[in-house]
From TrEMBL:
<feature type="binding site">
    <location>
        <position position="106"/>
    </location>
    <ligand>
        <name>ATP</name>
    </ligand>
</feature>
<keyword id="KW-0808">Transferase</keyword>
<feature type="binding site">
    <location>
        <begin position="2"/>
        <end position="7"/>
    </location>
    <ligand>
        <name>ATP</name>
    </ligand>
</feature>
<comment type="similarity">
    <text>Belongs to the shikimate kinase family.</text>
</comment>
<keyword id="KW-0460">Magnesium</keyword>
<keyword id="KW-0418">Kinase</keyword>
<keyword id="KW-0028">Amino-acid biosynthesis</keyword>
<dbReference type="InterPro" id="IPR027417">
    <property type="entry name" value="P-loop_NTPase"/>
</dbReference>
<dbReference type="InterPro" id="IPR000623">
    <property type="entry name" value="Shikimate_kinase/TSH1"/>
</dbReference>
<keyword id="KW-0963">Cytoplasm</keyword>
<keyword id="KW-0057">Aromatic amino acid biosynthesis</keyword>
<dbReference type="InterPro" id="IPR023000">
    <property type="entry name" value="Shikimate_kinase_CS"/>
</dbReference>
<comment type="subunit">
    <text>Monomer.</text>
</comment>
<feature type="binding site">
    <location>
        <position position="141"/>
    </location>
    <ligand>
        <name>ATP</name>
    </ligand>
</feature>
<dbReference type="InterPro" id="IPR031322">
    <property type="entry name" value="Shikimate/glucono_kinase"/>
</dbReference>
<keyword id="KW-0479">Metal-binding</keyword>
<keyword id="KW-0547">Nucleotide-binding</keyword>
Length: 166
C-alpha cells in the first residue's frame, strides 16, 4: 500500500508501449463493488479468493504490465501464477508508505492506530515480497527515477521471466 503501483505501473506501461491492468481495478469492475465494500460484505478471505482468480486470469490473458494489490502475493495461488513473471517489488518504508495512504479508505488499516497497523502489515509482507520479486527497487523517490531503475534492472532479468511486469 502506498508504494506507487498505480503511478509506476502506468509509467512502465507507457514506457514499454503496452497496456496496464491494475488487478484492484479489475476486481472492482468484475464484482461491481469497491474493494472496501467487498471486505465489508464478504470479508478478507472471500476478497483474497476473488483476487486470486482475477490475478490468474489477468496473468494468463494480459500482454502488458500488471499491477497487483499489496496483499495479493500473500496468497499461495497468486505466488504460484507469478513464478515465471518478472515481478517488481516497489519497496517503501513504513513512514513514507503510510503517509501516502493515511487519508484513504483502506480496509486493512481500519484499526485504532492505522500507522502501526501499516507498519505491521509491511513487516509481515516484506519477506514474501522479496522472495517473489525478480527486481526490488526503492519506490520512495521521483516516479521517473523509479521507472528508469526498473527498466534498467529488467534488462538483467532472464528472458523467460520478463514476459510481463508485475
Amino acid at each position: 500500500m502506498g508504494a506507487g503501483k498505480s503511478t509506476i505501473g502506468a509509467a512502465l506501461a507507457a514506457r514499454f508501449q503496452v497496456a496496464l491492468c491494475d488487478t484492484d481495478d479489475e476486481i472492482e469492475r468484475r464484482s461491481g463493488r469497491s474493494i472496501p465494500q467487498i471486505f465489508a460484505d464478504d470479508g478478507e478471505a472471500a476478497f483474497r479468493a476473488l483476487e486470486a482468480d482475477v490475478v490468474a486470469d489477468v496473468i494468463a490473458s494480459h500482454d502488458g504490465v500488471v499491477s497487483l494489490g499489496g496483499g495479493a502475493v500473500m496468497t499461495e495461488a497468486v505466488r504460484g501464477v507469478l513464478t515465471e513473471q518478472a515481478v517488481v517489488y516497489l519497496e517503501i518504508g513504513p513512514t513514507a508508505g503510510f503517509a501516502r495512504v493515511a487519508h484513504s479508505n483502506r480496509p486493512l488499516l481500519a484499526a485504532p492506530d492505522p500507522a502501526a497497523r501499516y507498519a505491521d502489515l509491511l513487516a509481515q509482507r516484506a519477506p514474501t515480497y522479496r522472495a517473489v520479486a525478480a527486481v526490488v527497487v526503492n519506490a520512495d523517490r521521483d516516479p521517473r527515477m523509479v521507472v528508469d531503475d526498473i527498466v534498467a534492472r529488467l534488462a538483467d532479468v532472464p528472458s523467460d521471466s520478463s514476459d510481463q511486469t508485475q
